[in-house]
Specification:
The longest helix is centred in the middle third of the chain and has 29 residues. This protein has a single domain, classed as Rossmann fold. By secondary structure, it is an alpha/beta fold. A seven-stranded parallel beta sheet has the order 3-2-1-4-5-6-7, with helices on both faces. Bound molecules: NADPH dihydro-nicotinamide-adenine-dinucleotide phosphate. NADPH dihydro-nicotinamide-adenine-dinucleotide phosphate (NDP) binds next to α1 and α6. InterPro entries: KR_dom, NAD(P)-bd_dom_sf, SDR, SDR_fam. This is Beta-ketoacyl-ACP reductase. Belongs to the short-chain dehydrogenases/reductases (SDR) family.
Length: 236
């Protein structure tokens, strides 16, 4: 039997975030998702928030707290890519990706930590990427933002670990979502050649790992980077 928790997933209207919300719902938890547009899965509370805007995050948390109680599990999933080679990358292309993927996670986690500290319990899961540690040409902005999440989880672990709060990173490889659908077919085939598993994963395969790391059985794991990448990033 797992304890029923209140869970908030950012960017839960599609892709990996949607699958994560579905997985927590299937396990009987109280689930809310943030969305800028669209809705989370049936059974989840959808609240509006943009992770680049701290006030909208605060409003979203207040709404979730009023409806479902204090947030005990937070999954910082919202993320964007704006790929281009370094020489062509504008400062705005760099900072906007960092603002969403890294500072966005900071804003969400900071707001979540209030209730977690009071409850002396919390599970923080940051959705990074294999390229955070592996690197990727054309993704200096994205990989920097995703590597930053590792330092964040480890600092959070040191700061909050004694209060019953864990902070972990899940680092997916290539997952079948809008983000990877946007890649040209030839590039997708090329990537698959380098993945030991020989395929992309489904969002569900990431969601199950996220639910596990946030669950009762994983209470002594913190500051870890858990790859869900078919072996692509082995060695980090
Ligand atoms: P999608 O592009 O399918 O979805 C991205 C989600 O993030 C959407 O819900 C989107 O909301 C939300 N989002 C983006 N910007 C903001 C913002 N400023 N405020 C609030 N929400 C925002 O992505 P995936 O599902 O593929 O990716 C989810 C996470 O997993 C991301 O962090 C991504 O970097 C990571 N990841 C994905 C991989 C993949 O292969 N797909 C591999 C490794 C990591 P909206 O619909 O409103 O735009």
């Amino acid at each position: 039997m797992t304890t029923t928790r209140t869970v908030l997933v950012t960017g839960g209207n599609r892709g990996i975030g949607y699958a994560i919300a579905q997985q927590f719902l299937a396990q009987g938890h109280r689930v809310a998702v943030t969305a800028r547009s669209g809705e989370g899965p049936e059974g989840a509370l959808t609240v509006r928030a943009d992770v680049t805007d701290a006030e909208s995050i605060d409003r979203a948390f207040a709404e979730v707290e009023a409806e479902l109680g204090p947030v005990e599990v937070v999954v910082a999933n919202a993320g964007i890519t704006r790929d281009t080679l370094l020489m062509r990358m504008s400062e705005e292309e760099f900072t906007s990706v960092v603002d969403t993927n890294l500072t966005g996670a900071f804003r969400v986690v900071k707001r979540a930590s209030k209730g977690m500290l009071k409850a002396r319990f919390g599970r923080i899961v940051l959705i990074s990427s294999v390229v955070g540690l592996y690197g990727s040409a054309g993704q200096v902005n994205y990989s920097a933002s995703k590597a930053g999440l590792v330092g964040m989880a480890r600092s959070l672990t040191r700061e909050l670990g004694a209060r019953g709060i864990t902070a972990n990173v899940v680092a997916p490889g290539f997952i079948e979502t809008d983000m990877t659908d946007a890649l040209p077919e030839a590039q997708q085939a090329e990537y698959k050649k380098n993945i030991p598993a020989g395929r992309f994963a489904t969002p569900d395969e990431v969601a199950k790992v996220v639910a596990w790391i946030a669950g009762d059985d994983a209470g002594y794991i913190s500051g870890a980077v858990i790859p869900v990448d078919g072996g692509l990033g082995m060695g980090h």
